[in-house]
Amino acid sequence: MYGIxxxxxKRMNLLGIDIxxxxxxxxxxxxxxxxxxxxxxPTPSDTIEHxxxxxxxxxxxxxxxxGIPVSSVDAVGISAPGPLDCRRGVLIAxxxxxxxxxxxxxxxxxxSFAAPVFMNNDANACALAESYFGEHRxxxxxxxxxxxxxMGGGIIMNGDLVQGATDTGGEVGHMILEAGGRLCxxxxxxxxxxxxxxxxxxxxLRETIRSxxxxxxxxxxxxxxDAINMxxxxxxxxxxxxxxLAEWDAFTERVAQGIGVLIMVLNPDVVILGTIGIHAGEFVxxxxxxxxxxxxxxxxxxxxxxxxxxxxxKIGELSALAVAASGLRxxxxxxxx
Length: 337
Ligand SMILES: [Zn+2]
Description:
By secondary structure, the chain is α/β, with parallel strands linked by helices. It has two domains: 2-121 and 314-336, 2-Layer Sandwich (Nucleotidyltransferase, domain 5); 135-310, ATPase, nucleotide binding domain (Nucleotidyltransferase, domain 5, 2-Layer Sandwich). Helices cover 43% and strands 18% of the residues. It is built from 13 helices and twelve strands. It has helices at 2-8, 48-66, 105-110, 122-133, 193-196, 198-212, 217-222, 230-238, 242-266, 276-280, 282-291, 298-302, 315-336; strands at 13-19, 23-30, 35-42, 75-80, 84-85, 90-91, 117-121, 142-146, 152-157, 160-161, 270-273, 305-308. The strands form three sheets. A five-stranded mixed beta sheet has the order 3-2-1-4-7. A five-stranded mixed beta sheet has the order 10-9-8-11-12, sandwiched between helices. Strand 9 (152-157) and strand 10 (160-161) form a beta hairpin. The radius of gyration is 21 Å and the shape is globular. The structure holds zinc ion.
């Protein structure tokens, strides 16, 4: 079956590397987002040389598993946590690997492959995955948002990723929604991330519970006040815990405020929420949609679908393939120009 498909239509063979804080996934697939093989390994915090060696070995193992010779790989894509320098192919300071500074990861991987190696940050990579492989693939104007530990975003306008002058285009988590507001991890006051990023939300809940001697089932769901996280928060709110519900209302209000700004400024066809959108579904999407009319004009809002990602748990692997596909398409169009 695979052979027949391959004869009918030539697909690009792509190798994807999704570098996460604790795990690195290596995936082999094509430009349609079909995954042939994938494996994971821990992202160690020890020496970068050790990591490079193990990573290249794993790439070869996964290619072998997929039955793709190294010489048939058309492009390699790396999705990695920021901050990074896409042009130089350098990881500047990965948050979970304190020993790694200015790691020339693209050059390191390039040494083992003849195919071109491309890299982008994880949120931009996910936006590319949505635009190539997701339910709204082909949308010309798409915003992808991820509310995990921090808050990331990727913006595609007129079919192209918005990188900006210093690759910080799409860093929507650090637009300031409240002058002089909560302290963000980036050092600014009142960033969107300080109100909706998982780490900051948990911090806020802990402080509020402690200072007000609040009784809430969030603590028990989390297994202790220090272990409070978004899952415990959501679970308590779903069960109707009064404090959790009031905080959930405040949380979705801030999410809607930020999305409203993006809809007003960018006029996107679709805004896609990863992480919490996938996990919490309508419990989070419903209140956000209800609150959005307060934050944007009616007609760009009516033209915009605000929805949870359809790619679920596969988005990380697909994001690395999307970086490879995008790099290849872009470099071809540059050569043609
Ligand atoms: Zn910030």
